[in-house]
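Lecture notes, continued. The same structure-token format from the folding unit now serves as the input rather than the output. Read the line below as a description of shape only.
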């Protein structure tokens, strides 16, 4: 599922700064230390996969999609049942005759 892959990327992004800091950075050159600081600063921003620069793929967003699909299908089912009920009574399916 795409959302679980997006969640793995998001979680992996959070681990980068910890991994970089746990290296023996104090033994490396000044240039390496400067680059390390830049990598750690960038790693503190969330890494995410987006759809159309609008929608982030994560478990939370996947849960939201599933909830919306469920509520929308229940809404359509309720409308369908009301129109069937009105058709049986002989009324218009768009007008509630109760």
């Amino acid at each position: 599922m795409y959302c679980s892959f997006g969640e793995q990327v998001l979680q992996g992004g959070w681990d980068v700064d910890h991994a970089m800091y746990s290296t023996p950075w104090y033994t490396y050159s000044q240039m390496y230390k400067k680059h390390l600081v830049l990598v750690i600063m960038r790693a503190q921003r969330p890494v995410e996969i987006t759809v159309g620069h609008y929608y982030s793929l994560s478990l939370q967003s996947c849960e939201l999609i599933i909830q919306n699909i469920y509520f929308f299908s229940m809404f359509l089912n309720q409308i369908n049942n009301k129109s069937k009920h009105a058709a049986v009574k002989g009324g218009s399916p768009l007008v509630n005759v109760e």
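Point for the exam: Residues 3 and 96 are 41 Å apart (CA to CA).
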